[in-house]
């Protein structure tokens, strides 16, 4: 398992044998190729958030949110599959890099189709980009099956499962719109079932807990960046249309408190040690991040909708604008506390406190029907800041390790 050949030299290796990496390596940092892969996903996330912002602002909140969740599932799942494969089989040689670059090309094709998918339920370009990403991943798994006898059974199952489901996605394009959502749900469940089938039947693939924790943390920063971009774009737009009002100022301050609070809540304790538990525990933690990532990225759209409403550039109501921030924030907190409890870090042990905080945040959003919208968002930010502060004090009293 552990081989000196995995210690990366400073020159590109044309070809090396692909074998499972040692999960007990003392140092397993993200590579420049992984960071480039993440960077290209920023484009897709930003496109999805922009379309969500426009949909809510134009009074089509329901369909826009539903389509956003569909689009984000594909973004998240493609990233998850690459990340776990790279943790198990990162040779960083020329064939590996070329197949990864093909996946990146698929991401960019996928991103160009997001506006049509979210506005008109036309997912043709998105599916083609997604299939490109997945075909490249199949190539990686087939290579692993050929060159790593120990991991061959799981690798073959991965390649087989991913290939069959991609045929399903191509067939999904021919379905009428009336059953489009149902067909998506069936295929999404099939996608989620592939790792369960591949990993829990025989020898599981190797992966590095610290590397996975770092990779998930980096993607969290990416979606937090989307939320910050939403705040910045909103304030910039308000200056362009007459200056920063008190309402917009409170929106911006509340938004920053929310972003900072979510950053602290996520990174307040290391996750790597908790991921050394059972595969089922880790799988639940990994899958649950879909809500965390989709919710945080949606906040950027929510902040822009709120400023549009405050500056009278949107058909949405103040209540809708406040809900577009409070609902994803509440979802993120409720799921995050469960994930951290699952691995024994962060908010673990303070679940009742988080539940109270979520109720108050939703109440603050409801108050936007009668109160100033900026004040309500600022209240949400203050509530999250208090929630994080109290959880830190609780953790200190119980002796749980926290990030300094």
């Amino acid at each position: 398992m552990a081989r000196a050949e995995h210690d990366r030299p400073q020159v590109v290796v044309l070809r090396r044998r692909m074998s499972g990496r040692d999960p007990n390596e003392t140092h397993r940092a993200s590579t420049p190729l992984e960071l480039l892969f993440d960077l290209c996903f920023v484009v897709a996330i930003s496109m999805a958030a922009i379309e969500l912002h426009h949909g809510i602002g134009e009074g089509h909140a329901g369909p826009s949110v539903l389509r956003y969740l569909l689009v984000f599932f594909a973004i998240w799942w493609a990233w998850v599959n690459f990340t776990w494969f790279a943790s198990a089989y990162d040779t960083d040689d020329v064939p590996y890099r070329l197949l990864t670059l093909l996946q990146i090309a698929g991401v960019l094709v996928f991103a160009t189709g997001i506006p049509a998918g979210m506005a008109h339920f036309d997912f043709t370009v998105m599916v083609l980009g997604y299939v490109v990403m997945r075909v490249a991943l199949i190539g990686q798994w087939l290579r692993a099956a050929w060159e790593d006898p120990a991991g061959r059974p799981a690798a073959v199952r991965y390649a087989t499962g991913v290939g069959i489901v991609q045929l399903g996605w191509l067939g999904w394009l021919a379905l009428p719109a009336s059953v489009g959502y149902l067909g998506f749900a069936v295929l999404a469940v099939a996608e989620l079932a592939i790792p369960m089938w591949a990993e829990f039947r025989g020898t599981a693939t190797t992966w590095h807990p610290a590397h996975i924790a770092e990779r998930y943390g980096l993607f969290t920063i990416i979606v937090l960046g989307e939320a910050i971009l939403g705040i910045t774009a909103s304030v910039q737009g308000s200056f362009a249309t007459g200056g920063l009002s008190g309402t917009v100022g409170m929106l911006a301050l509340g938004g920053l408190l929310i972003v900072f609070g979510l950053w602290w809540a996520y990174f307040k304790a290391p996750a790597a040690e908790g991921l050394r538990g059972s595969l089922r525990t880790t799988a639940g933690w990994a899958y649950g991040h879909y809500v965390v990532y989709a919710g945080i990225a949606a906040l950027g759209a929510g902040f822009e909708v709120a400023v549009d409403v405050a500056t009278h550039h949107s058909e949405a109501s103040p209540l809708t604008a406040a809900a577009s921030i409070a609902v994803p924030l509440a979802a993120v907190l409720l799921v995050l506390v469960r994930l951290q409890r699952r691995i024994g870090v962060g908010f673990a042990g303070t679940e009742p406190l988080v539940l109270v905080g979520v109720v108050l945040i939703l109440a603050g959003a409801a108050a936007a029907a009668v109160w100033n919208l900026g004040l309500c968002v600022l209240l949400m930010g203050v509530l999250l800041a208090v929630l994080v502060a109290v959880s830190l004090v609780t953790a200190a009293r119980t002796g749980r390790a926290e990030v300094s």
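The longest helix spans residues 209-240. The chain has two domains: 30-199, 209-398.
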